[in-house]
Amino acid sequence: MKNRGILIVLSGPAGTGKGTICKEFLKKNPDTVLSVSATTRSPRPGEQHGMDYYFTTRDDFEKMIAQNGFLEYAEFCENYYGTPIKAVNDKLDEGMNVILEIEVQGAMQIKEKKHDAVFVFIAPPSKKILRERIEGRGTETPAVIEKRMLAAETELKQISNYDYIIVNDDVESAVKRFEAIKEAESYKTTRNEEFIREVCR
Ligand code: ADP
Ligand code: 5GP
């Protein structure tokens, strides 16, 4: 029998490279999927509904909160972001690993609820490089960049609440470290109880 998939919570300040690392990781790891979140923020050029996010109104988002439709949700830079619960549970039950690329408040909600998750923080090599990356991406206005840099200050202070830190100095090395974490987690005794019962019988 297949073990339940691993719930991987990935956080890090906007612009640190979470999206870039995930994209490369997913290409090489077909046993893992990325959860698609709902958000009230507007789509960036090229972003697609149902692929990058479920873009939704505040009203609809709040209805889904009332129906307990989210595994976690948070307000970040004046928009709601949340993880639809059903898709995540279905994939984990199928034995697929699921990555939640979410900010710190949401990650801490998952930690408080004691889900069997692994918490990974992607850190920039420095704040200066973080600013260069977020500016270089060219997807936010200067005002939004300032808000995100401010949010980054708070987020970096929470790194110790995570199990692992990956410094994204180089994408290829960062992806390798991420793969090593997934691999090690899959060998935890607590994730292999079915086999342990079998072998002891
Ligand atoms: P996030 O998803 O964390 O907001 P992105 O993946 O969009 O961040 O990356 C932000 C910008 O930084 C992008 O332009 C990306 O190409 C660039 N970037 C990501 N990782 C690195 C790296 N290791 N070295 C240099 N640039 C990077
Ligand atoms: P962005 O607007 O840059 O796509 O995302 C802003 C922040 O929201 C990022 O830190 C991203 O990881 C986070 N985020 C995306 N989806 C979710 C979610 O479902 N829940 C929470 N809590 N944060 C999310």
Shape: globular
Bound heterogens, unique:
adenosine-5'-diphosphate, guanosine-5'-monophosphate
CATH class division of the domain at 7-35 and 96-199: Alpha Beta
Main beta sheet: strand number and arrangement? 5 strands, parallel
Number of helices: 8
Share in β-strands = 15-25%
Helicity level, as a percent range? 40-55%
Instruction: Going across the biggest sheet, name each strand in turn.
Output: 2-7-1-8-9
Low-confidence residue ranges? none
**What would you call the structural class?**
alpha/beta
Mean pLDDT value: 95
In whole angstroms, the N-to-C terminal distance is 15 Å
Total strands: 9
Topology-level CATH name of the domain at 7-35 and 96-199? Rossmann fold
**CATH homolog superfamily of the domain at 7-35 and 96-199:** P-loop containing nucleotide triphosphate hydrolases
Topology as a string of helices (H) and strands (E): EHEEEHEEHEHEHHEHH
How does CATH name the architecture of the domain at 7-35 and 96-199?
A: 3-Layer(aba) Sandwich
Kindly provide the radius of gyration, computed on alpha-carbon positions and rounded to a whole number of angstroms. 17 Å
